[in-house]
Design brief:
Layout: H1 3-19, H2 21-34, E1 40-46, E2 52-58, H3 81-89, H4 96-102, E3 106-108, H5 115-120, H6 122-128, E4 134-136, H7 138-151, H8 157-182, H9 185-200
Parallel strand pairs: 3-4
Antiparallel strand pairs: 1-2
Helix pairs in contact: 1-4, 6-8, 7-8
Length: 201
């Protein structure tokens, strides 16, 4: 990550944390009152092929011991009413501002993968993770809806994992590598704008 990109991330993260502080507190209270503890969902993601970190989101599902893997149709029954709203508006991702401030992720970059997929596709992610992972990115904007569609009808974690590995990982990686070859501050701003516009729409 270049010093300019890091400065940009810090400036935006501090500004948005202050701006969204009332929203963050409100969502925390709603989850606590309506769904109980824990308020946050913390999951290991990979910053590099060997270095993991704890990604923070608002909890949107009923917790299950030993839960792992990506979310598909097999987990849809666990999504709470509050969680469904947070996912639809993407407010569940606001706590990742903390990860941006820590330097775990950037605002724009490939979505940070689970360790199991990095270990399954080491050469692919060795290239993808040359870019600092981000909250949003080219793949998030142009493939997220299709990914949800592909995984929505799965009925088991094994089926979800198989479809994600076969159909999602390589396609997302292609988009992430396109971003990597063309990234600059202007492109980051454009992708952030497209993300906000998409959410509002």
């Amino acid at each position: 990550m270049t010093p300019v990109k890091r400065l940009f991330d810090l400036t935006c993260a501090i500004f948005l944390t202050i701006l969204l502080a009332p929203v963050i507190v409100l969502v925390m209270v709603l989850i606590l009152v309506l769904d109980g503890r824990p308020v946050f969902y913390i999951s290991e993601r990979m910053k590099t092929t060997s270095q993991g970190f704890d990604l923070v989101k608002f909890r949107t599902m009923k917790p299950v011991v030993g839960d792992s893997g990506v979310s598909g149709g097999d987990k849809s029954a666990r999504i709470t009413k509050t969680g469904a709203f947070l996912r639809r508006t993407r407010l569940d991702e606001v706590p990742q501002l903390y990860n941006v401030l820590r330097g775990d992720i950037s605002f724009v970059g490939p979505r940070p993968p689970l360790r199991q997929y990095v270990e399954q596709f080491p050469e692919l992610y060795a290239n993808v993770l040359k870019s600092r992972p981000g909250i949003t990115g080219l793949a998030s904007i142009y493939f997220h809806a299709h990914e949800e569609h592909l995984l929505a009808r799965t009925t088991s974690s094994a089926e979800t994992d198989a479809i994600y590995s076969r159909a999602c990982v390589p396609r997302k990686a292609r988009l992430d590598l396109i971003y990597q070859k063309n990234r600059n501050v202007c492109m980051d701003l454009m992708l952030m704008f497209k993300t906000v516009f998409k959410r509002l729409r």
